[in-house]
Amino acid sequence: MALKPNSPDGRTRSWVQIFIVFGLCCFFYILGAWQRSGFGKGDSIALEITKHGADCNIIPSLNFETHHAGEVGNVGESEKIKSFQPCPPRYVDYTPCQDQKRAMTFPRDNMIYRERHCPREEEKLHCLVPAPTGYVTPFPWPKSRDYVPYANAPYKALTVEKAIQNWIQYEGNVFRFPGGGTQFPQGADKYIDQLAAVIPITNGTVRTALDTGCGVASWGAYLWSRNVLTMSFAPRDSHEAQVQFALERGVPAVIGVLGTIKMPYPSRAFDMAHCSRCLIPWGANDGMYLKEVDRVLRPGGYWVLSGPPINWRNNYKAWQRPKEELEEEQQKIEDVAKLLCWEKKHEKGEIAIWQKRVNDESCRGREDDSQAKFCKAEEANDVWYELCLRLL
Ligand SMILES: *[C@@H]1O[C@H](CO)[C@@H](O)[C@H](O)[C@H]1NC(C)=O
């Protein structure tokens, strides 16, 4: 030490200084160790926040009106603020328009029963759907890509059903998402590397993507790590909570299905669309589903299809499906893709990739095709209902 104390008084002061420095070192060391210890245990910080948040009366009268008219604070005496009680605990997963019992009363063709069917006025519940018991604040990104607190979506069915495909693992009080999917048990990252060999994913050419039939949305989760924002959807199906898992992971997702209603996305919104074993019958209904994908893809956008029927020659046995059926399915897809003037960029293993044309010039000759019915200007956003072809 530079300072040489030579009076008893000075000596005491320097001891006090050393003590303070030492104390601060210890404090920050322990603080650091404590913060790190949250790994894999469910975040103690998150738990703490949730414990405090459990008392919802902290701000009992949140009002989400815009107040543009400037009437803050003078809500009329007559307009009493309505308050709703929590629903009974059995409604913890209640999604009013996706109720399984109601769904089963609708036809199964074209997935009508998996579309939105909302309760009639007299069936509506006027209560707040409660969070699952023990719900904690989800982990922040990027940890949330790989971990979800068990209490937030306590469903283990997928850990068993999709065990060898590495969708999701149960580890005490958290679920871990190794990034696997049916078509990519080795993890979404490796799978995306394969796609990136064909599609320029990382240089800004692809910024938005759509994942149809997303499972737990690992594809979107891993693309987010590469600065591509993905919208994912999947129906509410027998695997209880796939979309819920996606949301808990911090990946944009909605319950949705390609049935009889067009997709709720604007035209040309996506740079890439993706289906990996998504069970959408792409060749069916005169190519309606593919025409809809064409609508939401921007010119030059990519469509990725992996899994059946691609590579049916080698896989029909494993998939337990007749060769002829798979061959016909792929042929139909190729036919529609041709009609849409998509360019087949790649087919290797079970992955096939098409690219939407960049401009109209790149697809002369299509006008002569008697099958091609082109959309009138006003129906260009309704290819789904008109079964027409967009010019772009
Ligand atoms: C990205 O890469 C593709 C393919 O190599 C290329 O055609 C494109 O011009 C690149 N875009 C940018 C913004 O560098």
Explain briefly what this protein structure is.
This protein has 392 residues and is α/β, with parallel strands linked by helices.
* Share in β-strands: 5-15%
Q: What proportion of the residues is helical, as a percent range?
A: 25-40%
The total of helices stands at: 12
Structural class of the secondary elements?
Answer: alpha/beta
Q: What distance separates the N and C termini?
A: 76 Å
Radius of gyration: 27 Å
For the sheet with most strands, the description reads: 7 strands, mixed
Q: Taking all residues together, what is the mean pLDDT?
A: 83
List the helices and strands and how they pair.
Layout: H1 8-36, H2 44-53, H3 100-103, H4 143-146, E1 147-149, H5 157-161, E2 169-171, E3 174-176, H6 188-196, E4 208-212, H7 218-224, E5 229-234, H8 242-248, E6 253-255, E7 270-276, H9 288-296, E8 297-306, H10 312-315, H11 323-339, E9 343-348, E10 351-355, H12 383-386
Parallel strand pairs: 4-5, 4-7, 5-6, 7-8
Antiparallel strand pairs: 1-3, 2-3, 8-10, 9-10
The structure holds 2-acetamido-2-deoxy-beta-D-glucopyranose.
